[in-house]
Amino acid sequence: MISFYPGPSRLYPQVKAYLKDAYDEGVMSINHRSEEFMAISRKTVALLKEKLNIPEDYSVCFVSSATECWEIIAQSLVREKSMHVYNGAFGKKWFDYSSRIKPGAAPYPYEAQEKLVHDYRVWDSADVICLTQNETSNGTEISNRLMHAIRRRYSGLIAVDATSSMGGVYLDFHTADVWFASVQKCFGLPAGLALMIYSPAALEQAREINDRSRYNSLLFLDEMMQRWQTPCTPNVLNIYLLMRVMEQRKSIIKVDAATRNRYRKWDAFFESGEQLKHFIKNPSVRSKTVLTIEGSTDHIRSVKQQAREAGFLLGEGYGELNESTLRIANFPALRQNEIARLMDFLSRHR
Ligand SMILES: *Cc1c(COP(=O)(O)O)cnc(C)c1O
């Protein structure tokens, strides 16, 4: 079965050999305070910075999920009010999680079919503006260009959920203070590890707020990372796998070009579809890594079923879009011939 699910998703095929290496090298039993672990952690961060173009003065730390990052931001970076700008289920969930920790969290929903228009009068009142760069539930994105425009307008911190795009497309990290992603999407790895990337300004705000009430307070994470360590025992195996995957991966500029190239083919494929069409009608807001395709409920159900029988796992529609849409991951770990085979299959149903 080839998984086109937008997370957990297809692993890089090399992961099988890396797992064996990890076993043989004893990686799964090393102590997380040992020199061996610190070397893996240091090298992984260096590779991430190099391959993803993360600015030199930004920091990287390891946590367990994107959901954990939502909570860390609310605990450690929000004084009173976070502004949650969203057009879909993940951004909405982030708002829900934050508001339980900091009740001053404010929702700013917008239409998935329309380009986001930022609103100075409303947003400027927040300590942290929270954006979902790639909304996995409906297949929309906020472009680097729009991120730039938002960055220029606001002096407060900007935090970005890039869970289903980081590692697959180029992100200009300078346009926000906090970025996070878990590895079961574009990094082609098993679930259970996430990265949080933060700017000197984010760290400064964390120091002013000085939240030290949780094991995963950002200040603890940051202090431990000075020694390439984590407050609790981390997912050492997955950090090792991430290091190995990043070693073999090309620079994000090249990966981005390949992702966009594949995306253009999918885009055109469904532009000319009759029974299967883009759910997002406005091409300028479509995600490059997650396609959401709509059709009649009967047709969608039948395509998902037949795809399964043909050896393809398609993504279910998310939440309320469950029955009317299906989703297709355009993640780097998918191989060209797998995409060609899925297109061939879908061309009989589109
Ligand atoms: C998958 C996903 C999450 C949740 O990731 P976890 O690792 O399960 O916490 C959050 N946000 C977005 C945009 C996602 O795609």
What is the element layout, followed by pairings?
Blueprint: E1 2-3, H1 15-24, H2 35-52, E2 59-63, H3 66-76, E3 82-86, H4 89-101, E4 106-109, H5 120-123, E5 128-132, E6 134-135, E7 140-141, H6 144-153, E8 157-161, E9 178-182, E10 194-198, H7 200-209, H8 218-225, H9 236-248, H10 252-271, E11 277-278, E12 290-294, H11 297-309, E13 312-313, E14 315-316, E15 325-329, H12 336-347
Parallel strand pairs: 1-13, 3-4, 3-5, 5-8, 8-9
Antiparallel strand pairs: 2-10, 6-7, 9-10, 11-12, 12-15, 14-15
Helix pairs in contact: 1-9, 2-9, 3-4
Bound molecules: pyridoxal-5'-phosphate.
Pyridoxal-5'-phosphate (PLP) is lined by residues 7, 65-67, 90, 132, 136, 161, 163-164, 182, 194.
The SS-based structural class is alpha/beta
Task: Indicate the low-confidence ranges by residue numbers.
Answer: none
The main β sheet shows up as: 7 strands, mixed
CA-based shape = globular
Strand content: 15-25%
- What is the total tally of β strands? 15
Oligomer: single chain
Please tally the helical runs, counting DSSP H or I stretches of 4 or more residues: 12
How large is the radius of gyration? 20 Å
Order of helices and strands: EHHEHEHEHEEEHEEEHHHHEEHEEEH
Q: Mean of the pLDDT scores? A: 97
Q: Say which molecules are bound, naming each kind only once.
A: pyridoxal-5'-phosphate
Main traits of this protein?
350 residues; alpha/beta; 7-stranded mixed sheet; 4-stranded antiparallel sheet; 12 helices; 15 strands; 16% strand; globular; binds pyridoxal-5'-phosphate
